[in-house]
Amino acid sequence: MEGVLVAHISAAERRPQFIEAAIVVIARDGVDGATTRRIADEAKAPLATLHYCFQTKENLLVAVFEHLSSEMSVDLDSIAVKGASTATVAERVLTATMQWLVDRPVRARAEIEIDLWAQRNDPEMARGIYDGFRQAWTDLLMKGRTPLPAAEVETLVRVMIALADGLTMQFISDLDPQRTMRDTETACTMIRSYLKSRSRAAA
């Protein structure tokens, strides 16, 4: 009887499979519950191959977060349209971010789980996660038609990130996308009101 041929899958092909599997398992079981064996089982791949691709679970977590961040940033690149006001850019950034998350609840939960895990176990990774969002959003807001001083942009971005984090936590708790986007609209109104009052004060 002839042996069964098993198709070889390269490490380059396996990496995205493991990342997608890790997103599912982390969202379902949390980071601590997402063992490499469970992730390999979800990917329907050998555990040894996962370790060959990423060496450690921490390396896989970093790869997962970088993958999620790159997916999200694609939609944000076109937000700072030439001539748009700072308030409009801020609204677009927050709205697009929340829309991306409510459209992808599994990814939203996985991202939050990794962030919380990093805060407890890897402060350097947690700072890197936060700094990445802060810098990306700061760069976008600085392109607004009426840019604020750098210190005020930094404060605004920190508040926007706090709003996004809170809205995301509420969303993954009740999974009500309509409510989340209504709340996001209210948050945008608050930001616009603040920037309008700031503009009047500076006049």
Your description of this structure?
This protein is mainly α and 203 residues long. The chain is 80% helix and 0% strand. It is elongated.
Write the layout of secondary structure elements.
Elements: H1 11-33, H2 36-43, H3 47-54, H4 57-76, H5 86-102, H6 105-121, H7 123-141, H8 150-174, H9 177-202
Number of strands: 0
Radius of gyration: 20 Å
Task: Please give the count of helices.
Answer: 9
The largest pleated sheet is described as:
none
Cα distance spanning the termini: 87 Å
- Beta-strand content bin: under 5%
Series of H and E elements? HHHHHHHHH
Outline of the structure:
The chain is mainly α and 203 residues long.
Task: Name some characteristics of this structure.
single chain, elongated, 203 residues, mainly alpha
